[in-house]
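# nightly structure sweep
# worker-07 picked up a monomer target from the shared queue
# config: single-sequence mode, recycle default, output format = structure tokens
# input follows
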Amino acid sequence: MMFEPFAPFLPSEYRIKFATEAWEREGAARLRRRVFCTEQGLFSGDDRDAIDDHAILLVAISLWGVAADDVVGTVRIHQAEPGLWWGSRLAVEAGHRRVGALGATLIRLAVSSAHALGAQTFLAHVQTQNALLFQKLHWDLLEPVDLHGHPHLRMQADLAYYPPCFTPEIGFQALPARKAA
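# output follows
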């Protein structure tokens, strides 16, 4: 077996859950600014809006053994009207995007949690480069839209593929992908 002296270290696992601690919310806000303001240039300075005042925030936390390390992914959900839920601001730290499961697991917990809270419809405005991921996760394309000067797609989750999750504070586990030896 060949030893790679500078291979990146991956956390032992990730926990995807509702943000319940102040450090989780602060980490999610920093991550969103890095992704949406600095990296993508969609917003100047901060991406917060009025939805943040009532949205439920979900986070992906990297774990080293059993110790929480850092917020490396986030998404928010909110109910726009009874039964109609939206997901938005899905972001994964650049160094963790190749893990393979973080974005999908954040999406799964977001929709399953909203389903448990009474969602009859779950929508999102998805950046066009992410459409294939959402389609693989049983989302339907409704229409193209322009948001913040960039093309997006309004998409709808097929709730039949997302059983209600009644324990989102505990959430889901995601394991990092490992290269075969």
